[in-house]
Write a structure and sequence with these properties.
37% of the residues lie in helices and 20% in strands. The chain is built from 14 helices and 17 strands. The structure holds glutamic acid.
Amino acid sequence: MGDLFKSTKVTDAKRIVIKIGSALLVDEKHGTVHRKWLETLAKDIATAKARGQEVVIVTSGAIAVGRRHLDLPKGSLRLDEKQAAAACGNIRLAHAYQEVLGHHQMSVAQILVTLEDSENRRRYINARNTIETLLKVGAVPLINENDSIATDEIRFGDNDRLAARVAAMISADTLVLFSDIDGLYTADPSKDKNAEFIDVVEAFISPSIEAMAGGSASDFGSGGMMTKIAAAKIALNAGCRMVITKGNPLHPLKALEDGAKCTWFLPDATPKKARKQWISGSLKPMGEVIVDAGAITALKTEKSSLLPIGVKEVIGDFMRGEAVIVKGPEGEEIGRGLIAYGSEDARKIVGLKSSEIKEKLGYMGRDEMIHRDHLVVEL
Ligand code: GLU
C-alpha cells in the first residue's frame, strides 16, 4: 500500500471520489435518470465500501433532468433558466441516489458547493470537515455544484474540475472520472484515425499532454477533454491518482476493476505529502501562535494536535482556516498549520482546557486549536 500513488488498481484506493457525467446518468430524450445503470453502480459502491473503501460521489445531471421536468426550451438555456433547472434537478437526482444506495443500506447526504467553498479557507475547512464526518459515519456524500446560486463568474461550470477540487480538499487518493470517452488519445479519435491511446500519464501534465486535449467538448455535459486535463492537474498536485474511463457499461466500477480500457494519471507524491507541501510551502501565514514547552514535546514526539491549553499567545489578525506559524517561547518555528479559530476567538481560549471552550465562546468549537491533519511540524 506504500506506493499506492503509483498503482493503477482501483481496488487499492482508500478514499475514492467518483464523478458521474450527465450523459451517463440522464436519458437526454426524456430527461430521466438511467435507473438500471445507476442501480449497478450502487451495487459496485456497496462492494467497495464492504472492502473498506470510502466513496464520495460527484454527480452531474441536475440541469439535464430539471430542464426537461420544467419543460424549458431546447437548445442553450439562459443562466436563470439553468439555475432553475438545477434547483429542480438536484432534488430528483438526490432522490434517485438515495433510493439506489438505500437498497444496499447506504445513507446518502447531499452537499451543493460553489467555487468559493473550495477557495475561501473558512468555507473550505467546513466543507472538508462535513465530508470527513459523513465518511466517518459511513454515509456516501453526494456532491454537485450549487448551480442555482452560483453566478457565471464564480461557477466551476464543469464537474470534472469540481470533482478534482473535492478530491484535493478531502485528500482522496483516487479520482474516477466516468465519462463518455475511454481515456486520453494523442488526438481526437473521432477526427483523427492515427490518434493513439495513452495508458498512463505520470507525475505532471506536460504541454504536449495538454495539447492532446484539444478543445473537444461534448455538448450535453460540459466536460470535454480540456476540463479533464484541468482536473488531472488539480488531482496530481494534490497527490491524488486520477483515471478516465467510459462509464456506460453496467457495473462501471467493477468494469474498471476488471481491467476496462482507461487512462491513469499518477502523481509523484501521496495526498498527505502534497497537502503538507501546500500548507508549509504555498500558503501565506497570516499570524503566529506561540506555544509552551509541553506543547512542543506533544507536537514533536507524540504527533498530537495543538490544543488551546498549550498556547501562550496568539499574534496577528486572521480568520478561521487560515495558515499560521507555530512558534516556541524563544520565537523558534515549530511548524505551520491551518487554525480552527479566527484570531479573536483564538485569543480568548489561550491556555484553556478544551472542555472550557464552550463556556468561554458561547458555542461548541473544535477541541484543537490546530488539528494534526492540518499541521506540519518541523522535526
Ligand atoms: N452541475 C451541472 C449539473 O448538475 C453539471 C456540470 C457538468 O456537466 O460538468 O447539471
